[in-house]
User: Which sequence fits this backbone?
């Protein structure tokens, strides 16, 4: 969620019971601004908090002029000092997917592979490295996976210019209440995968400036999002069931929206059994 | 079509005197005419929409000049669209508003009702309340948890506060606590943990006794019918279901507290039924999301005996038993007059507040987990807190059995299960793999003198406890499931049972496989061929007999 609207936004996502203490909120107000100054970001988003066993990671993302470009991610253990994370590569994501269990809370903690079989080992460790992966790397991979899988925005909030770059839509006044309850009004804010698979009829109805991303309708498994009206029907809150802890909020007919992650950073692979 | 301007396409093509319009008398006010023509063109109403461009441009420019947005030229098309949209909106305006806003209005009405005082409340009631305070101070608890970043928004907490107050005014409640919030697919649950005044709960037990007696009556009727039809009966099933373990009495063990739930503060509170051991045992094997509707069925394997209300109650019981903790010394065992031995060998199950409680410092509370203890009994594998031998019959039932049946072979005597005694320190909790069961942290490192000790459970993610001085509390915010690093593997169906017990009349054997049948056929043919050679010399009748095979 936008750093500028953080206090109000935290009130709106607090329905899940997770939030930030006043100390962290105050610290973020100042440190996110400084991040913007130091790294010359145009926008700074507070991505959320991954709870480890011994400590927590607070994550922020910075966006440049093209909002759809790969974002810079930073983490902090105390919301005051931030360190830049390396960009996520496919290799890193594949390696980190083998890991299970909680984060430890210590960025230099090294995981050892125990369950990996010989074929996978050869594939992933071509240069014969040891079976160790640092928690920082796992953090990078997890944040990337979460953003890719469940980072969402309302339809119409971003427009694609003819030059290909993506900006906020200044004419976005918010979704109406009926639209806000439908999953098709929300898009994954990442490279579209299913867009080309739509039928010609569907494509004819799309508006290329606003409909350039995948919507949530066809997410697998169906029902992996819960849509609820909270606070007496004034806020629409979407929660992901695949990554438990991801909460998206939107106040209909206003420009307020955003998503945040408060959780343990583990994918919920039991989802099909639980629905 | 007056004289063409330099930027217009017709410029320079027609020389004066040779243009196609030269035969017309040029108007002295050719420019004025041009303007009038242009304006007339712009005022033409569109055949499809009834608008005309002149008015539309005027509206657009008025709007732009009124609002003065930055970089207008970039968004001019959108402004044009908005102006057109505004034209059409008015006709359906009233309908749309009414349709959309209704749910929010109703919800606001309900919440407003929370804030209104109930009828007949006066000063007298205030005096009564000062004596006994069943209403918990939800805002105070919320403040302490907020120091750790846990908790709902202040609005919601206050609504819950008022909703609890309403609950207390309606039900005869002795103690009440905000237990927490469980999230669901369609709606969430807000849960209150409550203890009644003694003697308020007899209604439920009467209903259950009636049902049991009715069941026995039915059994007798069925026996009579079966006696008549003994001739053509399929063999009776010898399956004896495992004995149903009776649930614990209200007020003890897993049913010590009564739980009320509502979906949102302002909606009526619903009482959850007591939990039975069978439900707890089954709840341990399944993992399902809550939908938010108490009457929703729980479709699972093994089939859950009950609907969502029962599943919710079972999960609440498990979470409470596993994660309700308090600082050591806050509760102590009541001094008992007699011996402590009980039949089941279980420990004491009552405790009371320690009036001489000396709180430990926050640093001590956080450093080691021995400073926290469980004050709820843990639930055994059987599904109860106090173990009950299901084969121990009461006197009445023994008499009945001697009359009717011979005592069937008793299955192996079950080992008595003993759980950890009440008030065991939390450090004895098993961790999962290499993760300790609890994570303890102070709420702030910057101001240690006012920090609050916070414990987060790792076995039940979402369960939290805080302690600060003499105050402590537990709370749960989450989806209601236990943490398991392994993926959930549902139970496999049991192996196929034999249909009939093997006996002199009926014997079950496997069907022969194709190879076996072919081998048998080949062997038989060989035998036939051998027999034929012997009998070839004899009559043809032998051949006919063979064909019968």
Assistant:
């Amino acid at each position: 969620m936008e750093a500028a609207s953080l206090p109000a936004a935290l009130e709106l996502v607090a329905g899940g019971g997770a939030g930030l203490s006043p100390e962290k909120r105050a610290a973020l107000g100042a440190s996110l601004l400084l991040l913007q100054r130091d790294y010359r970001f145009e926008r700074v988003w507070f991505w959320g908090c991954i709870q480890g066993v011994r400590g927590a990671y607070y994550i922020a993302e910075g966006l440049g002029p093209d909002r759809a470009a790969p974002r810079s991610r930073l983490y902090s253990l105390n919301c005051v000092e931030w360190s830049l994370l390396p960009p996520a590569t496919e290799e890193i994501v594949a390696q980190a997917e083998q890991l299970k269990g909680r984060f430890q809370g210590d960025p230099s903690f090294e995981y050892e592979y125990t369950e990996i079989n010989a074929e996978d080992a050869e594939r992933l460790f071509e240069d014969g490295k040891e079976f160790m992966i640092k928690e920082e790397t796992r953090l990078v991979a997890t944040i990337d996976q979460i953003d890719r899988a469940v980072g969402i925005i309302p339809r119409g909030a971003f427009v694609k210019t003819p030059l290909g770059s993506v900006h906020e839509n200044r004419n976005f006044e918010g979704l109406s209440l009926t639209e806000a309850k439908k999953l098709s009004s929300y898009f994954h804010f990442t490279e579209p995968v299913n867009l080309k698979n739509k039928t010609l009829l569907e494509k004819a109805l799309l508006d290329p400036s606003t409909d350039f991303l995948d919507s949530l309708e066809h997410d697998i498994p169906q029902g992996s999002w819960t849509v609820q009206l909270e606070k007496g029907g004034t806020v629409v809150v979407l929660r992901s069931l695949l990554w438990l802890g991801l909460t998206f909020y939107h106040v209909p007919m206003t420009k307020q929206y955003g998503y945040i992650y408060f959780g343990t950073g583990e994918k919920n692979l039991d989802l099909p059994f639980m629905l | 079509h007056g004289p063409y301007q330099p930027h217009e396409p017709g410029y320079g093509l027609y020389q004066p005197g040779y243009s196609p319009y030269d035969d017309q008398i040029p108007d002295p006010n050719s420019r004025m005419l041009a303007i009038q023509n242009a304006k007339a063109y712009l005022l033409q109403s569109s055949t499809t929409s009834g608008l005309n461009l002149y008015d539309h441009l005027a509206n657009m420019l008025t709007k732009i000049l009124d609002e003065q947005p930055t970089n207008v030229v970039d968004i001019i098309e959108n402004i044009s669209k908005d102006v057109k949209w505004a034209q059409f909106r008015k006709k359906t305006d009233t309908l749309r508003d009414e349709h959309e806003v209704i749910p929010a209005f109703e919800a606001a009405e309900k919440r407003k009702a929370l804030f209104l005082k109930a009828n007949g409340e006066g000063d007298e009631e205030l005096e009564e309340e000062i004596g006994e305070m069943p209403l918990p101070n939800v805002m105070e608890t919320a403040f302490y948890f907020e120091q750790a970043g846990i908790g709902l928004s202040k609005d919601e907490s206050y609504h819950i506060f008022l909703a609890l107050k309403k609950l207390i005014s309606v039900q005869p409640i002795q103690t009440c606590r905000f237990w927490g919030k469980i999230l669901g697919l369609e709606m969430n649950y807000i849960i209150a943990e409550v203890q009644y005044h003694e003697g308020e709960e007899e209604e439920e037990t009467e209903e259950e006794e009636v049902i049991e007696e009715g069941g026995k009556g039915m059994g007798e009727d069925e026996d009579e019918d079966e006696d008549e039809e003994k001739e053509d009966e399929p063999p009776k099933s010898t399956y004896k279901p495992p004995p149903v373990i009776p649930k614990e009495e209200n007020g003890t063990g897993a049913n010590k507290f009564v739980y009320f739930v509502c979906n949102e503060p302002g909606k009526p509170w619903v009482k959850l039924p007591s939990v039975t051991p069978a439900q707890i045992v089954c709840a341990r094997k399944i993992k399902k999301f809550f939908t938010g509707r108490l009457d929703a069925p729980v479709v699972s394997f093994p089939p859950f005996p009950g609907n969502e209300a029962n599943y919710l109650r079972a999960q609440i019981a498990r979470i409470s038993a596993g994660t309700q903790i308090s600082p050591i010394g806050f509760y102590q065992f009541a001094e008992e007059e007699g011996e402590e031995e009980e039949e089941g060998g279980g420990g004491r199950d009552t405790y009371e507040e320690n009036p001489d409680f000396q709180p430990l410092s926050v640093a001590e509370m956080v450093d080691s987990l021995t400073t926290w203890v469980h004050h709820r009994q843990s639930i055994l594998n059987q599904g109860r807190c106090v173990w009950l031998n299901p084969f121990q019959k009461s006197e009445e039932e023994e008499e009945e059995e001697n009359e009717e049946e011979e005592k069937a072979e008793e299955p192996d005597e079950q080992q008595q299960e003993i759980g950890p005694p009440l008030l065991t320190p939390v450090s004895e909790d098993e961790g999962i793999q290499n993760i300790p069961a609890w994570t303890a942290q102070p709420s702030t490192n910057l101001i240690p003198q006012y920090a609050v000790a916070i414990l987060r459970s790792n076995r039940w993610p979402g369960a939290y406890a805080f302690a600060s001085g003499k105050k402590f509390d537990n709370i749960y915010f989450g989806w209601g499931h236990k943490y398991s690093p392994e993926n959930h593997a549902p139970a496999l169906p049991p192996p196929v049972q034999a249909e009939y017990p093997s006996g002199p009349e009926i014997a079950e054997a496997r069907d022969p496989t194709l190879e076996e049948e072919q081998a048998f056929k080949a062997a038989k043919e060989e035998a036939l061929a051998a027999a034929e050679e012997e009998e070839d010399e004899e009559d043809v009748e032998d051949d006919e007999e063979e064909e019968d095979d």
